Automatic annotation (TrEMBL):
Keyword Hydrolase attached: yes
CDD domains named among the record's database cross-references: HAD_BPGM-like
Natural source organism: Bifidobacterium simiarum
Gene3D superfamilies: HAD superfamily/HAD-like (3.40.50.1000), Putative phosphatase, domain 2 (1.10.150.240)
Molecular function (Gene Ontology), one example: sugar-phosphatase activity
UniProt key word Membrane: no
InterPro entries tied to this protein: HAD-like_sf, HAD-like_SPP, HAD-SF_hydro_IA, HAD_sf, PGP-like_dom2
Keyword line: Hydrolase
Official protein name in the record: HAD family hydrolase
Length: 227
């Protein structure tokens, strides 16, 4: 058995971008004031950028939410255009799923330009479609992003249980679980002061992408359906 589809979070799951986001936050705090630290950034990993911007403003950064949000996104986007920091082994998994006929969908709270940049720098054709910040009103941990991903593939109702969702953050895992997908947590690669618990809401965990195959992901789905 293979998954019906694979839904991929981007930051921290496909790419090691979290350090760049936190570098951007620190740069704006240094330039425009505010009590902010790298540790604070790691504690809110996975939080949508406008919410991060509001937190920074609440702690003294002298910019508006929209201006700070756009500034942080532009900072990260420029870095990623120079070099997309793929997590080791992840493109092998994405490519193997594609070759096995399993659709890959990028599901991210990042804006469209950043989602399209990641897809453009991946092997050609491995992603079938994507859901980004502009596509859904409600963000993770709401289930809306993953439900939108399923809808793009015509997957309705309980059939989303036959799909795997691959995530690294607590808010992302909650979103995917609430949507009904068979949710897999990446627990061993990304540094975080608030990592996903191995006893969290996800169905299963993997430490790294090494050894992860379409068959293994399909086995997770089968095991869940048999419960």
């Amino acid at each position: 058995m293979l998954p019906r589809a694979a839904f991929w979070d981007m930051d921290g799951t496909l790419i090691n971008s979290e350090p760049i986001w936190h570098e951007a936050e620190l740069w704006f705090a240094e330039q425009y004031g505010g009590d902010w630290s790298e540790e604070m950034g790691w504690k809110i990993t996975g939080t949508p950028v406008p919410q991060v911007a509001q937190m920074m403003i609440d702690r003294g950064t002298k910019l508006g939410v929209e201006e700070l949000t756009e500034g942080i996104i532009d900072f990260v986007a420029k870095r990623e255009m120079e070099h997309m920091p793929w997590i080791p082994g992840v493109l092998d998994v994405v490519s193997a799923l594609h070759e096995a006929g399993v659709p890959n969908v990028l599901v991210t709270a990042s804006p469209r330009a950043m989602a399209e940049s990641a897809i453009a720098q991946a092997p050609a054709g491995v992603f079938d479609t994507y859901v980004c910040a502009e596509d859904v009103k409600e963000k993770k941990p709401d289930p809306a992003p993953y439900l939108a991903a399923a809808a793009k593939l015509g997957i309705e109702g309980d059939r989303i249980r036959e799909c795997v969702a691959l995530e690294d953050s607590a808010v992302g895992l909650e979103s995917a679980v609430r949507a009904g997908a068979t949710t897999i947590a990446l627990t061993g690669y990304i540094h975080s002061d608030n990592p996903p618990s191995k006893n969290g809401p996800q169905f299963a965990c993997v430490e790294t992408w090494d050894g992860v195959t379409p068959k293994l992901l399909g086995d997770f789905v089968r095991q869940r359906l048999e419960k």
